[in-house]
Amino acid sequence: MSSTTDPYRKLTPRKVALITGATGGIGKATSLALAKTGEYELALHYNAANEDTRSALSANIATNTGIQPHFFQADISSYDAVRKLYADVIKAMGAVDVLFNNAGSVGGHSGAKSLADIPMGVFEETYRVNAGSGILLTQLCLPHMEEQGWGRVVFCSSVAGLTGGECWLRYETMSGVD
After folding, report:
1. pLDDT tens-digit profile of 148-167?
2. What is d(CA 107, CA 119) in angstroms, rounded to the nearest whole number?
3. Domain boundaries defined on the chain
4. What letters, b where the CB count within 10 A reaches 16 and e where it falls short, cover 110-125?
5. Contact 150, 87 (CB under 8 A)
6. Is 149 exposed, middle or buried (0-12, 13-18, 19+ CB in 10 A)?
7. Which CATH superfamily includes the segment(s) 15-175?
8. Per-residue pLDDT of the chain (178 residues; tens, 9 = 90+)
């Protein structure tokens, strides 16, 4: 396979780190921490973060580290969007060496006091965001990591998986998955 069609080609001397849910909280802190090492090019996933949020994070990373992150939008409640996210990252940056699965959602619904109150469609969409998309991205990234004999996959979960709370029923169910 030629280097121009090889999906695992390296377009940068640094390792490529893909961080989902990168524009807030843990994802934002992880982005900055990895950039500060100087060892990673950053592929930062976001779903709905506005341009001001992305620009502020980009400026923070560039000012503190000299690294210019790349942003990739995807609604990861859709497995087709997850596959496109992966394809867009490897096309722009080369193969992923580090995958930090951080994206999570409560599905925009809160206040359910019983699992019986949650429609299956809402539960399934929340599962796809909080667990399924991370598994799929891992499956997509692993061949390169295995081929080169090195890679890292991290699943970040929330403390809600341990502490619970009535308004987070679907979220905490998936947050125990790590």
Report:
1. 999 999 999 866 666 655 54
2. 11
3. 15-175
4. eebeeeeebeeebbeb
5. no
6. exposed
7. NAD(P)-binding Rossmann-like Domain (3.40.50.720)
8. 334 455 556 666 799 999 999 999 999 999 999 999 999 999 999 999 999 999 999 999 999 999 999 999 999 999 999 999 999 999 999 999 999 999 988 776 666 777 788 889 988 998 999 999 999 999 999 999 999 999 999 999 866 666 655 544 444 555 554 4
Task: DSSP for the chain, please give it.
Answer: --TTT-TT-BSSSSEEEEETTTTSHHHHHHHHHHHHHT-EEEEEEESS--HHHHHHHHHHHHHHHS---EEEE--TTSHHHHHHHHHHHHHHHB--SEEEE-----TT-----SGGGS-HHHHHHHHIIIIIHHHHHHHHHHHHHHHHT--EEEE---THHHH--GGGHHHHHHHT--
Which amino acid, one-letter code, is at 85?
A: L
Q: Nearest Cα to 106, choosing from 122, 82, 119?
A: 122
Q: Looking only at Cα atoms, what is the longest distance across the chain?
A: 56
> Both tokens of residue 61?
């990373």
